Amino acid sequence: MIFTRKIRVLAATAALLAPLTIFSSAAQAETAAPLGKPEVEQIIRDYLLNNPELLLEVQDALEAKQREEQKMAQKAVMEERKDQLFNSPYDGVVGNPDAAITVVEFFDYNCGYCKRAMADMQALVEENNDVRFVLKEFPILSAQSREAHVVSMAVHAIAPEKYAGFHQQLLGAETRADGELAIKIAVENGVEEGALRKEMENPAIQKIFSETYELANQLAVTGTPAYVIGDEIVFGALGKDVLAEKIDQARSQSN
Fold this sequence. Notes:
By secondary structure, this protein is an alpha+beta fold.
């Protein structure tokens, strides 16, 4: 990754210096023979060695441009797929279902950072009646995670009123989440096991997973937790204060 980045920086730097070199060659054409490729490369090399800070400036500019391009691409996806992102009937909701501010969280039941961030979500919805969390089932860590999320999707489908309690208990479990544990917790929360197991076979669940993976890929979401707040994507368990700040920004933008 570092080697590739250096190549990109060198290429960008060479592109910036090329006009200067050509100009220099043209100016010298009146009194001397044109510079050849080796001479031009040596000039660029000497210039970079004498001005190494230019590499950092070019790298910073390149990375800033890439971040801005990614942000614009993400905004386009959010607009194009906003119903799937914010209002999918397959996603669980924590908080006021009619809240004006929506925070979408991509999570995995075996993600330690997601477990740690659950308290932040609970505190934020308790303190802000105009905020709701939409939970995007995103099993990416293991086959056991996918098993647990299949159960979770089935719980939401047949007993949505029990989903929030089930979700908090499964995500808060100290042991690794898998299908067996998820079924046990669902039954403890009053979900009928026979109906649950039948719904777990619904092929729509796997289809929804595929759609979520595609959406995450388009948004450049590769880990959990990841949040969509307003028109911004926040990566990682950054804490309640950071999420609250982003929520305030989204609130001000909507006014």
